[in-house]
Structures are given as structure tokens and as C-alpha cells.
Write a structure and sequence with these properties.
Blueprint lengths: L2 E3 L1 E4 L2 E8 L19 H25 L2 H14 L2 H14 L3 H19 L1 H5 L1 H16 L13 E5 L4 H4 L7 E6 L7 H9 L3 E3 L12 E5 L4 E3 L4 H11 L21 E5 L2 H9 L4 E6 L13 H14 L4 E5 L29 H4 L3 H14 L4 E6 L5 H14 L3 E6 L2 H5 L1 H7 L2 E4 L1 H9 L17 H21 L4 E4 L7 H10 L3 E4 L4 H8 L4 H12 L4 H10 L3 H4 L3
Parallel strand pairs: 3-4, 4-5, 5-6, 9-10, 9-16, 10-11, 11-12, 12-13, 13-14, 14-15, 15-16
Antiparallel strand pairs: 1-8, 2-6, 3-7, 7-8
Bound molecules: phosphoenolpyruvate (PEP) and magnesium ion.
Length: 565
């Protein structure tokens, strides 16, 4: 029997067969020629057959995929038999006796480069081309197709980590749980798992060695993966499978005593905002503006930006929206803002700091936000990421004043901002705590590093104390200035239903999260009064480890077990 341990990111108890994410397809050797005995004609025919098989397979998967996945798969399937692509590959076979797998690789790479040069919508097809390139090579060479495997029954997916492109097609009816050897609880895969409500364990060393088809038990609350499920574990999984269904969010976050805790969504563009509105989010607590421009080499024009922001505002007429200015750098570089190579990009020129090295972009972004807000009746608040001094907060406020944006805020992501929260809130109206970065900077642990996942955990007592200090600073600033200074949490911590109770108990006013997590957070918040939340927060604060802090909170929240959370 082998037991693997990792960090649970979305609770659940399931038993199922493990399927490993296949290795990425490698580039066939340059100069690879036709095999002996194979004619150019038959090789060209094989390319055609392989492309058609890939197309058929993608279409078949599209049938069973979720709504978003269906669109992705259908568009990729069209690319598989693109005439220009196949013609290019066949020509290479015929004119240079190139092996078919090498020919399709080269033709697709050329095709992708052309699309990239065209920019705009065409450039967005590059990912599709790379995907079909790998699939056709796999088909031609008898390798397992890349991407999420297909199985005749629901399975547990094991991987080193998942790429964003893989996650688009992940269907929770096929994949019942996720286990990864790398990644951290605040990294991409974890965010996705929470959004889908999928039991997941990250940073579980060794899980990529589990044989395909092995039946395992996973308890993603405890972070345990067991390759020989016991009778008790079978029962626990059975109980989980028959849990009470999660009630849908009714559009109003509140505690059992009616105390209101608005629940907002974290979004990146108009599409995700519409989805969040469909799930009845009460507004947007974090618009990650950089997400809309991650593929851009150059700064988008004020008009383009204004259009993008407007599409988000339009999804929430009359509601609360917090726009965060571009947070470029570290794991989210934008070529037009992050111009220098850095040894330590997480400690480098990122977030608000890019205004020092590439001045002008921020001012133009503020103009775009103003332009979009003028045409909207949403209540627009604007904040800056990665603030570490009070004077940065003041500079930012002055910049907003200049363009006429009225409600100013900053993110609390550095310990420096925490200890200065009172002074910072003397300058601006609100703060939003980015627990992902605040955890990484408090614990001095890179948020992307699986090896440090245990430190990179917002349940760490030091992080909880940082949140408490921020709230206390805000309370003092509210008294001094005679006006309420709001504290929100928009990091992944807000999406953890047990931690959400602790945050509210610590005095956080509003929570913002991946829209998919709102229903679970709301259901658990509804099970406690404000006084109970405060008591739980006090007990949790007294613990000396993240595991004990979490266990103490869970002990006082029986609803978690009832709902299988
Ligand atoms: C955070 O750091 O918690 C946050 C919300 O910002 P991001 O995850 O975009 O860095
Ligand atoms: Mg951050």
C-alpha cells in the first residue's frame, strides 16, 4: 500500500481509477526521412488519414464536453484538416522525402508563425495549430494523444501540473478528481479545481508514478491519496457521493443572523464576467485587467482597453466593480511593461512598480477605465496591485483624481502594506487583500513552487495574523477619518469556504473569488452567526500550524461535512 500526501485545494472524498496525463509529444527529429519502403504517395495519404482521425476524435469528444470545452474542441477539430496545413505537409513529403511526422510538424510550425505574424484573431489560432500538430504526430507514430486522456468511466487525473490549455476541456463528469505532483494551492490548477468544484490535491510528490488504472482513494481535505482503499475509505467515498447537493447561490451573501457579506467574482474579461453574472455574483471584486492582454506584445490602445472594460461593466449593470490596474510581472509578464530580465521577478518591477520603468501606460489605462465607466452605470472602484508604501498609495490616488475616478484603493499584498494599512487607508478608500501574494511574501515562499506548498498556504498563522493586522489598521483609519474604510479579500483564501468564515470573523467586509466557488462559500457562511465566526477566528488564530488552524475551523463547521466540502 502506498500513501501519498499533498495539499488539498477543494475538499472531497472519492475512489476511482487513476489515469496519467500523457507526456507532451516531442518534436520529430529534424531531417527525418521517409522510412524504407514507404512511398511519398502513401506517406501523404497517411497524413490525410491521421488528420481525419484526429478531427473525428475531437468532434466525438466535443459531443460530451461542457459548453466551453465544446467550442474549444470544435474549433480545434476544424484546424486538424485545414487544407493549407495538409497541403504544406504533403508538399514537404513529396519534394524532400520527409517523414510524414516531421513534415506535419514543420508545416504546422510555419503555419503557426504566419498566423502569429497576422496578429489579432489569427494569432489566437496558434494554440490550436500546436495542439493539432501534436495530435497528428501522435496518430502517425502510434503514441498516446496529448491532452486529457479519455476513459470509459469517470477517473482521477494525475499530472505534474496542468497547462491552462488542458484545463479548458476538463469535464468534471469525466474527471472526478485531480492530483498533481507540482503546483501550489494558489496556482493555476488549484484555482481551476475550485472553480469547477473538483476535489483536488496538489504538490503530492510521487503521484505521477501511480500506474494507469490503479484504483485509489483520495481525501482532498486531508491531502491523502491511498492506493489500497480500506473499507472505511470506501464508506467515506460512498457517503461523499451521496452528499446533500450544494444549494445554488441566491445572489445575497449573508451569515445566519442576516449580517451581510457581499460575495463578488474575480474575472478577467467580459466573457468571464457574464459567466459570473449568470452565477449571481453580486459584482466584481477583482477585475484582473492584465488577463485581457496577456498575448499582447504592444500596449493596447485606450479605445481597445475601454471596450474590454466596458464589456465587464455591462455584465453587472448598477453593481459594484473593482478594477485592478495592470498587474504585469513575475508569473504574468506583459512584453510592453516588463522590459528587463530579472533575477527575482516576484521581487522585481511588477504591478504598480511598472509605472516607474515604463511611465505612461498606467495613466492611459486610467483614461480607458474612466472612458468605460462614463458609459456605464456600474459603481466603479479602482485599485493598484503590489503596493508597499503609503506614498505609492497617495501617488495612485492623485492619478485617479486627475482623470476623475472617484473611489480609490490598493491591494494589500506585501507585509509592508499590512503594517502600514492604517496610514495607507488615510490616503485611499479601501483595500483588497491579495492573499496569494501576501502569503508568498509573508512566508518568503514562491507561490508557484510545489516544494514550498506547505508554506504557501493562507492557513499559515502568520498570514492570518497579517489579515487581522490589516483589518485593525482599517478600523483605526475609519475612526480617524470618520468614514468606513472597506477591507476585502480577493485572493484564493476567499474561495475556501472554511477560511471564508475565518476571514469574516477577523472583520473582512467582502469576499471576491472565482465565481464557481461562490455557492459553496455562501452555503457555509449561512451556517454561522457573526459572533460564531468571530469565535472560530479567535480559536484559529491561537493555533501554531496551518494544519491545526484548518482542523480547528473545520471542527466548528459541521456543514462542511454535510455538504462534502
Ligand atoms: C493575490 O495576490 O491574491 C491576487 C488576488 O492577485 P493575483 O493572484 O492576480 O496576483
Ligand atoms: Mg497578487
Amino acid at each position: 500500500m502506498t500513501v501519498y500526501n499533498g495539499v488539498g485545494v477543494y475538499a472531497g472524498r472519492v475512489i476511482g481509477e487513476v489515469l496519467q496525463m500523457p507526456e507532451p509529444i516531442k518534436e520529430p527529429k529534424p531531417g527525418l526521412k521517409l522510412a524504407e519502403g514507404e512511398t511519398a504517395e502513401s506517406a501523404a495519404e497517411r497524413i490525410q488519414f491521421a488528420a481525419e482521425a484526429v478531427k473525428a476524435n475531437l468532434l466525438e469528444r466535443a459531443e460530451n464536453a461542457s459548453r466551453d470545452g465544446k467550442a474549444v474542441l470544435k474549433s480545434t477539430s476544424q484546424m486538424a484538416t485545414d487544407r493549407a496545413l495538409l497541403k504544406g505537409a504533403k508538399k514537404l513529403v513529396e519534394s524532400q522525402n520527409m517523414a510524414p511526422e516531421r513534415a506535419i510538424w514543420e508545416a504546422a510550425s510555419d503555419f503557426a508563425a504566419q498566423m502569429e505574424a497576422l496578429g489579432g484573431y489569427m494569432a489566437e489560432r496558434v494554440t490550436d495549430i500546436h495542439d493539432v500538430r501534436a495530435r497528428i504526430v501522435a496518430e502517425l507514430t502510434g503514441q498516446q494523444a496529448p491532452g486529457i486522456p479519455v476513459h470509459d468511466k469517470p477517473f482521477i487525473l494525475a499530472a505534474v501540473d496542468l497547462a491552462p490549455a488542458d484545463t479548458a476541456t476538463l469535464n468534471p463528469e469525466e474527471v472526478i478528481a485531480l492530483i498533481t505532483s507540482d503546483g501550489g494551492p494558489q496556482a493555476h490548477t488549484a484555482i481551476l479545481a475550485r472553480g469547477l468544484g473538483l476535489p483536488a490535491i496538489v504538490a503530492a510528490k510521487g503521484v505521477t508514478e501511480i500506474e494507469n488504472g490503479t484504483r485509489v482513494y483520495i481525501d482532498s481535505n486531508e491531502g491523502i491519496i491511498d492506493t489500497e482503499p480500506s473499507v472505511e475509505q470506501e464508506e467515506a467515498a460512498h457517503k461523499y457521493a451521496n452528499r446533500q447537493p450544494l444549494p445554488e447561490f441566491d445572489g445575497k451573501g449573508m451569515l445566519a443572523d442576516g449580517f451581510e457579506v457581499p460575495l463578488y467574482a474575480n474575472v478577467g474579461d467580459g466573457k468571464s464576467a457574464e459567466k459570473a453574472a449568470g452565477l449571481k455574483a453580486e459584482g466584481v471584486g477583482l477585475l484582473r485587467t492584465e488577463f485581457g492582454f496577456l498575448g499582447n506584445d504592444t500596449e493596447p490602445s485606450v479605445e481597445t482597453q475601454a471596450e474590454t472594460y466596458k464589456s465587464v461593466f455591462d455584465a453587472f449593470p448598477g453593481q459594484h466593480i473593482v478594477v485592478r490596474t495592470l498587474d504585469a510581472g513575475a508569473d504574468k509578464p506583459l512584453p510592453f511593461l516588463n522590459v528587463k530580465e530579472e533575477e527575482n521577478p516576484a521581487l522585481g518591477v511588477r504591478g504598480f512598480r511598472t509605472d516607474w520603468t515604463v511611465p505612461g501606460v498606467l495613466a492611459r489605462q486610467l483614461q480607458a477605465i474612466k472612458q468605460a465607466s462614463d458609459g456605464s452605470d456600474a459603481d466603479i472602484w479602482v485599485m493598484a496591485p503590489m503596493i508597499s508604501t503609503t506614498s505609492e498609495a497617495r501617488t495612485f490616488k492623485n492619478m485617479l483624481d486627475e482623470v476623475g475616478l472617484k473611489t480609490h484603493g490598493v491591494m494589500v499584498e506585501t507585509p509592508a502594506a499590512v503594517v502600514n494599512s492604517e496610514a495607507i487607508l488615510g490616503e485611499v478608500d479601501f483595500v483588497s487583500i491579495g492573499t496569494n501574494d501576501l502569503t508568498q511574501y509573508t512566508m518568503a515562499a514562491d507561490r508557484l513552487l510545489g516544494d514550498l506548498a506547505h508554506l504557501n498556504n493562507p492557513w499559515q498563522p502568520a498570514v492570518l495574523k497579517m489579515i487581522k493586522l490589516t483589518v485593525e489598521g482599517a478600523q483605526r483609519a475609519s475612526e480617524t477619518h470618520g468614514t468606513k474604510k472597506y477591507v476585502s479579500v480577493c485572493g484564493e483564501a476567499a474561495a475556501d469556504p472554511a477560511l471564508a468564515v475565518v476571514l469574516v470573523g477577523l472583520g473582512v467586509d467582502t469576499l471576491s473569488m472565482n465565481a464557481g466557488a461562490i455557492a459553496a462559500v455562501s452555503a457555509v457562511l449561512k451556517s454561522v452567526t457573526r459572533e460564531q465566526a468571530q469565535e472560530i477566528a479567535q480559536l484559529v488564530l491561537a493555533e501554531i500550524s496551518s494544519a491545526e488552524a484548518k482542523a480547528t475551523a473545520r471542527k466548528h463547521l459541521p456543514i462542511l461535512d454535510e455538504l462534502g466540502l
